[in-house]
Amino acid sequence: MEPIIFIVLVLIGYALGSAKLINQGNEALVERLGRYHRKLKPGLNFIVPLVDQIVMEDTTREQILDIKPQDVITQDNISVEVDAVMYWRIKDIEKSFYAIEDLQGALTQVTTTTLREIIAQNTLEQTNVSRMEMHSALLFELNSITTDWGVDILRLDLQRITLPDSVRKSREEEQAAVIKKRALITEAEGEKEAAIKKAEGTMASVQIISQALRSNPDTRDILRYLVAQDYVDASQKLGESNNAKIVFIDPANSSEMFHELIGHPENPEGNGKKHENGNT
Question: In terms of domains, do 236 and 256 share one?
Fold first, then answer.
Protein backbone atom coordinates (compact mmCIF):
# COMPACT_ATOMS: atom_id res chain seq x y z
CA MET A 1 0.00 0.00 0.00
CA GLU A 2 2.79 2.39 0.83
CA PRO A 3 4.34 2.34 -2.68
CA ILE A 4 0.92 2.95 -4.18
CA ILE A 5 0.29 5.87 -1.86
CA PHE A 6 3.71 7.26 -2.71
CA ILE A 7 3.04 7.01 -6.43
CA VAL A 8 -0.34 8.72 -6.02
CA LEU A 9 1.24 11.53 -4.06
CA VAL A 10 3.93 11.91 -6.71
CA LEU A 11 1.32 12.08 -9.43
CA ILE A 12 -0.70 14.64 -7.50
CA GLY A 13 2.40 16.75 -6.91
CA TYR A 14 3.34 16.46 -10.56
CA ALA A 15 -0.10 17.57 -11.64
CA LEU A 16 -0.08 20.48 -9.24
CA GLY A 17 3.40 21.47 -10.32
CA SER A 18 2.64 21.23 -14.00
CA ALA A 19 -0.67 23.09 -13.94
CA LYS A 20 -0.35 26.82 -14.47
CA LEU A 21 -3.32 29.19 -14.53
CA ILE A 22 -2.91 32.34 -16.64
CA ASN A 23 -5.41 35.13 -16.01
CA GLN A 24 -7.37 36.78 -18.80
CA GLY A 25 -5.43 39.66 -20.32
CA ASN A 26 -2.06 38.11 -19.47
CA GLU A 27 0.42 35.90 -21.31
CA ALA A 28 3.45 33.96 -20.12
CA LEU A 29 6.71 32.67 -21.58
CA VAL A 30 8.03 29.17 -20.92
CA GLU A 31 11.67 28.14 -21.26
CA ARG A 32 12.70 24.51 -21.45
CA LEU A 33 16.21 23.81 -20.23
CA GLY A 34 17.12 27.49 -20.57
CA ARG A 35 15.74 28.06 -24.04
CA TYR A 36 12.48 29.59 -25.20
CA HIS A 37 9.87 26.85 -25.58
CA ARG A 38 6.37 28.28 -25.96
CA LYS A 39 3.86 30.93 -24.95
CA LEU A 40 1.07 30.32 -22.45
CA LYS A 41 -2.34 31.78 -23.22
CA PRO A 42 -5.02 32.78 -20.66
CA GLY A 43 -6.61 29.76 -18.93
CA LEU A 44 -5.27 26.45 -17.60
CA ASN A 45 -1.91 25.35 -19.03
CA PHE A 46 0.42 22.46 -18.25
CA ILE A 47 4.20 22.41 -18.24
CA VAL A 48 6.80 19.81 -17.36
CA PRO A 49 8.06 20.37 -13.82
CA LEU A 50 11.83 20.72 -13.34
CA VAL A 51 12.22 20.93 -17.12
CA ASP A 52 9.98 23.83 -18.04
CA GLN A 53 10.11 27.19 -16.30
CA ILE A 54 7.88 30.26 -16.59
CA VAL A 55 10.30 33.15 -17.02
CA MET A 56 7.81 35.93 -17.62
CA GLU A 57 4.13 36.72 -17.20
CA ASP A 58 2.85 40.14 -18.24
CA THR A 59 -0.32 41.90 -19.31
CA THR A 60 -1.26 42.50 -22.93
CA ARG A 61 -3.75 45.19 -21.94
CA GLU A 62 -3.26 48.89 -22.58
CA GLN A 63 -0.81 50.52 -20.18
CA ILE A 64 0.01 54.13 -19.30
CA LEU A 65 3.49 55.63 -19.15
CA ASP A 66 3.76 59.09 -17.61
CA ILE A 67 6.55 61.13 -19.19
CA LYS A 68 7.94 63.55 -16.63
CA PRO A 69 8.18 67.25 -17.61
CA GLN A 70 11.00 67.80 -20.07
CA ASP A 71 12.81 71.01 -21.00
CA VAL A 72 12.64 71.32 -24.78
CA ILE A 73 13.89 74.08 -27.11
CA THR A 74 11.69 74.98 -30.07
CA GLN A 75 12.88 75.92 -33.54
CA ASP A 76 12.69 79.64 -32.65
CA ASN A 77 14.95 79.09 -29.60
CA ILE A 78 12.28 79.25 -26.90
CA SER A 79 12.68 76.89 -23.97
CA VAL A 80 9.43 75.21 -22.94
CA GLU A 81 8.52 72.51 -20.45
CA VAL A 82 6.52 69.64 -21.95
CA ASP A 83 4.49 67.10 -19.98
CA ALA A 84 3.18 64.04 -21.86
CA VAL A 85 1.38 60.73 -21.32
CA MET A 86 1.90 57.69 -23.52
CA TYR A 87 -0.55 54.78 -23.96
CA TRP A 88 0.96 51.48 -25.09
CA ARG A 89 0.49 47.72 -24.99
CA ILE A 90 2.53 44.58 -25.55
CA LYS A 91 1.81 43.14 -28.96
CA ASP A 92 4.41 40.35 -28.93
CA ILE A 93 5.39 39.25 -25.44
CA GLU A 94 8.30 37.17 -26.74
CA LYS A 95 9.99 40.18 -28.33
CA SER A 96 9.23 42.40 -25.33
CA PHE A 97 11.18 39.99 -23.11
CA TYR A 98 14.08 38.93 -25.31
CA ALA A 99 14.65 42.02 -27.49
CA ILE A 100 15.05 44.61 -24.73
CA GLU A 101 16.37 44.48 -21.19
CA ASP A 102 14.32 47.20 -19.46
CA LEU A 103 11.18 47.74 -21.51
CA GLN A 104 9.60 50.63 -19.60
CA GLY A 105 12.93 52.40 -19.16
CA ALA A 106 13.63 52.08 -22.87
CA LEU A 107 10.15 53.37 -23.72
CA THR A 108 10.69 56.40 -21.48
CA GLN A 109 14.05 57.23 -23.02
CA VAL A 110 12.97 56.82 -26.65
CA THR A 111 9.78 58.83 -26.06
CA THR A 112 11.71 61.68 -24.43
CA THR A 113 14.28 61.78 -27.22
CA THR A 114 11.68 61.64 -30.00
CA LEU A 115 9.57 64.31 -28.28
CA ARG A 116 12.53 66.69 -28.17
CA GLU A 117 13.41 66.05 -31.82
CA ILE A 118 9.87 66.67 -33.08
CA ILE A 119 9.34 69.86 -31.04
CA ALA A 120 12.78 71.16 -32.08
CA GLN A 121 11.56 71.04 -35.70
CA ASN A 122 8.59 73.33 -34.94
CA THR A 123 8.23 76.89 -33.72
CA LEU A 124 6.36 77.71 -30.54
CA GLU A 125 3.30 78.79 -32.53
CA GLN A 126 3.33 75.57 -34.54
CA THR A 127 3.69 73.53 -31.36
CA ASN A 128 0.57 75.12 -29.88
CA VAL A 129 -1.52 75.02 -33.05
CA SER A 130 -0.50 71.77 -34.79
CA ARG A 131 -1.01 69.33 -31.91
CA MET A 132 -2.67 66.65 -34.08
CA GLU A 133 0.13 66.75 -36.65
CA MET A 134 2.73 66.48 -33.89
CA HIS A 135 0.92 63.51 -32.33
CA SER A 136 0.87 61.72 -35.67
CA ALA A 137 4.57 62.39 -36.24
CA LEU A 138 5.44 61.18 -32.74
CA LEU A 139 3.44 57.97 -33.14
CA PHE A 140 5.06 57.22 -36.49
CA GLU A 141 8.59 57.73 -35.15
CA LEU A 142 7.97 55.77 -31.94
CA ASN A 143 6.26 52.78 -33.58
CA SER A 144 9.07 52.51 -36.12
CA ILE A 145 11.39 51.83 -33.16
CA THR A 146 9.18 49.90 -30.73
CA THR A 147 7.92 47.40 -33.33
CA ASP A 148 11.16 45.46 -32.85
CA TRP A 149 10.38 45.36 -29.12
CA GLY A 150 6.95 43.84 -29.65
CA VAL A 151 5.27 47.01 -28.38
CA ASP A 152 2.51 49.02 -30.02
CA ILE A 153 2.31 52.75 -29.16
CA LEU A 154 -1.38 53.63 -29.26
CA ARG A 155 -1.27 57.38 -28.66
CA LEU A 156 0.80 60.13 -27.09
CA ASP A 157 -0.89 63.15 -25.51
CA LEU A 158 0.92 66.42 -24.81
CA GLN A 159 -0.86 67.35 -21.60
CA ARG A 160 0.79 70.67 -20.92
CA ILE A 161 3.29 73.03 -22.55
CA THR A 162 4.59 75.48 -19.96
CA LEU A 163 6.18 78.70 -21.19
CA PRO A 164 8.78 80.80 -19.33
CA ASP A 165 7.31 83.72 -17.37
CA SER A 166 8.82 86.34 -19.70
CA VAL A 167 7.46 84.63 -22.82
CA ARG A 168 4.04 84.10 -21.26
CA LYS A 169 3.82 87.76 -20.23
CA SER A 170 4.82 88.91 -23.72
CA ARG A 171 2.19 86.68 -25.32
CA GLU A 172 -0.48 87.98 -22.94
CA GLU A 173 0.41 91.59 -23.80
CA GLU A 174 0.39 90.75 -27.51
CA GLN A 175 -3.00 89.07 -27.21
CA ALA A 176 -4.39 92.05 -25.29
CA ALA A 177 -3.11 94.40 -28.00
CA VAL A 178 -4.75 92.29 -30.71
CA ILE A 179 -8.08 92.32 -28.85
CA LYS A 180 -7.88 96.10 -28.35
CA LYS A 181 -7.07 96.60 -32.03
CA ARG A 182 -10.06 94.50 -33.07
CA ALA A 183 -12.32 96.48 -30.74
CA LEU A 184 -11.11 99.81 -32.19
CA ILE A 185 -11.61 98.54 -35.75
CA THR A 186 -15.11 97.35 -34.90
CA GLU A 187 -15.95 100.67 -33.27
CA ALA A 188 -14.59 102.63 -36.25
CA GLU A 189 -16.55 100.49 -38.68
CA GLY A 190 -19.70 101.05 -36.61
CA GLU A 191 -19.19 104.81 -36.59
CA LYS A 192 -18.53 104.76 -40.33
CA GLU A 193 -21.68 102.79 -41.00
CA ALA A 194 -23.71 105.11 -38.75
CA ALA A 195 -22.33 108.18 -40.56
CA ILE A 196 -23.20 106.65 -43.92
CA LYS A 197 -26.73 105.87 -42.76
CA LYS A 198 -27.11 109.40 -41.40
CA ALA A 199 -25.84 110.94 -44.63
CA GLU A 200 -28.18 108.77 -46.67
CA GLY A 201 -31.08 109.83 -44.44
CA THR A 202 -30.18 113.50 -44.79
CA MET A 203 -29.91 113.18 -48.55
CA ALA A 204 -33.30 111.50 -48.74
CA SER A 205 -34.83 114.22 -46.55
CA VAL A 206 -33.35 116.97 -48.73
CA GLN A 207 -34.70 115.32 -51.86
CA ILE A 208 -38.19 115.03 -50.36
CA ILE A 209 -38.17 118.67 -49.20
CA SER A 210 -36.85 119.87 -52.54
CA GLN A 211 -39.53 117.97 -54.39
CA ALA A 212 -42.23 119.35 -52.06
CA LEU A 213 -41.02 122.94 -52.56
CA ARG A 214 -41.09 122.57 -56.33
CA SER A 215 -44.58 121.08 -56.35
CA ASN A 216 -46.17 123.40 -53.73
CA PRO A 217 -44.56 126.75 -52.86
CA ASP A 218 -46.87 127.13 -49.84
CA THR A 219 -44.86 124.43 -48.02
CA ARG A 220 -42.09 126.99 -47.40
CA ASP A 221 -43.91 128.14 -44.28
CA ILE A 222 -43.88 124.56 -42.99
CA LEU A 223 -40.20 124.31 -43.81
CA ARG A 224 -39.47 127.52 -41.89
CA TYR A 225 -41.29 126.06 -38.92
CA LEU A 226 -39.24 122.86 -39.06
CA VAL A 227 -35.97 124.81 -39.29
CA ALA A 228 -37.01 126.92 -36.32
CA GLN A 229 -37.96 123.80 -34.35
CA ASP A 230 -34.57 122.22 -35.05
CA TYR A 231 -32.88 125.41 -33.95
CA VAL A 232 -34.80 125.44 -30.67
CA ASP A 233 -33.94 121.77 -30.01
CA ALA A 234 -30.28 122.37 -30.72
CA SER A 235 -30.24 125.39 -28.41
CA GLN A 236 -31.85 123.33 -25.64
CA LYS A 237 -29.24 120.55 -25.94
CA LEU A 238 -26.49 123.15 -25.94
CA GLY A 239 -27.88 124.68 -22.77
CA GLU A 240 -27.90 121.30 -20.99
CA SER A 241 -24.16 120.79 -21.57
CA ASN A 242 -21.83 121.65 -18.66
CA ASN A 243 -19.38 123.45 -20.94
CA ALA A 244 -22.03 125.09 -23.10
CA LYS A 245 -22.17 128.80 -23.91
CA ILE A 246 -25.63 130.23 -24.47
CA VAL A 247 -25.95 132.66 -27.36
CA PHE A 248 -29.06 134.87 -27.44
CA ILE A 249 -30.54 135.92 -30.76
CA ASP A 250 -32.85 138.87 -31.18
CA PRO A 251 -36.34 137.46 -31.91
CA ALA A 252 -36.97 140.39 -34.22
CA ASN A 253 -34.15 139.17 -36.48
CA SER A 254 -34.91 135.47 -36.18
CA SER A 255 -37.60 135.57 -38.88
CA GLU A 256 -35.16 137.12 -41.33
CA MET A 257 -32.53 134.54 -40.39
CA PHE A 258 -34.93 131.66 -41.07
CA HIS A 259 -35.90 133.24 -44.40
CA GLU A 260 -32.23 133.33 -45.37
CA LEU A 261 -31.83 129.68 -44.33
CA ILE A 262 -34.71 128.76 -46.60
CA GLY A 263 -33.25 130.91 -49.34
CA HIS A 264 -36.60 132.46 -50.43
CA PRO A 265 -36.96 136.16 -49.62
CA GLU A 266 -40.56 137.31 -49.60
CA ASN A 267 -41.75 139.20 -52.69
CA PRO A 268 -38.50 140.91 -53.76
CA GLU A 269 -40.25 142.54 -56.66
CA GLY A 270 -42.85 144.12 -54.34
CA ASN A 271 -40.10 145.50 -52.11
CA GLY A 272 -38.49 147.05 -55.13
CA LYS A 273 -41.75 148.75 -56.13
CA LYS A 274 -42.28 150.15 -52.65
CA HIS A 275 -38.76 151.53 -52.70
CA GLU A 276 -39.29 153.18 -56.03
CA ASN A 277 -42.64 154.67 -54.83
CA GLY A 278 -40.99 156.01 -51.75
CA ASN A 279 -38.30 157.72 -53.81
CA THR A 280 -40.82 159.27 -56.04
Answer: yes
**DSSP reduced 3-state for 116:** helix
Cα–Cα distance measured from residue 54 to residue 250, given in angstroms and rounded to the nearest whole number: 117
**Integer Cα distance of 219 and 225 in angstroms:** 10
Read off the CATH number of the domain in which 74 is found: 3.30.479.30
Do 244 and 265 belong to one domain?
yes
| Amino acid letter, residue 117 | E
Q: What is the pTM of this model?
A: 0.56
Domain count, the chain: 3
How far apart are the C-alpha atoms of 180 and 183, rounded to whole Å? 5
Q: Which helix (H) or strand (E) element contains residue 239?
A: helix 220-240
Q: Which helix (H) or strand (E) holds 37?
A: strand 35-40
In the beta sheet, which residues pair with residue 239? Answer: none
Torsion of CA 90, 139, 63, 105, to 10 degrees: 80
pLDDT in tens, 44-85: 888 888 888 899 999 999 999 998 888 888 888 888 888 889
Q: Is the dihedral of CA 122, 128, 129, 135 positive or negative?
A: positive
Are 150 and 95 spatial neighbours (Cβ–Cβ below 8 Å)?
A: yes
Residue numbers of the domain that contains 119: 63-168
120 inside domain? yes
**Is 53 found in the same domain as 120?**
no
